[in-house]
Design brief:
Helix content: 40-55%
Number of helices: 8
Distance between the termini: 27 Å
Strand content: 15-25%
CATH architecture: 3-Layer(aba) Sandwich
Radius of gyration: 15 Å
Structural class: alpha/beta
Number of domains: 1
Shape: globular
Length: 183
Amino acid sequence: MHANVVDPERAYLLVVDLQETYRDKLFEWERTVERAVVLIRAARLLELPVLFTEQYPRGLGSTAPEVMDALADAPRFEKRTLSALGAAGLPEYLATLDRSQAIVCGIETHACINHTVHDLLGRGVAVHLPCDALSSRREREHSLGLAKLLRSGAIGGSVEGIVLECLRSADHPQFKSVQALLK
């Protein structure tokens, strides 16, 4: 398998800061959240580890309800740092997973996603970015942040493309369930 293809045996999904307070502030909130929810649900069907962060929830509120519904009992990490790896216990949790690929979605592309992805790349993790499940408050910040991440070595894609890489074949036992999410 090519190194730029998601391997479901080596990957996990990290959902960054999709908090309710950003609903009316984020560029294309509805698209970002809808695609993130599809990705979360697919990852759970495919038995990928899923975890999420909340940036200073006491001040910024909790994860949006539709995202929380998809996350269900996924491990939650509070943070005050821009990088998710600054969240207490998160690096240690990742070490227990012993996986070398991260799928990262959430917000904001130029801020918390930027710091998180660069920290993961610096640790030798192959980072896959579902570009349709990323955003920032301003379109320009999102575009510039995404371009920087791709130049730095993150692997761009879409929610559907990443999920199909995990499936690999219509013979996968979860193919029909996942396909239903993608329609």
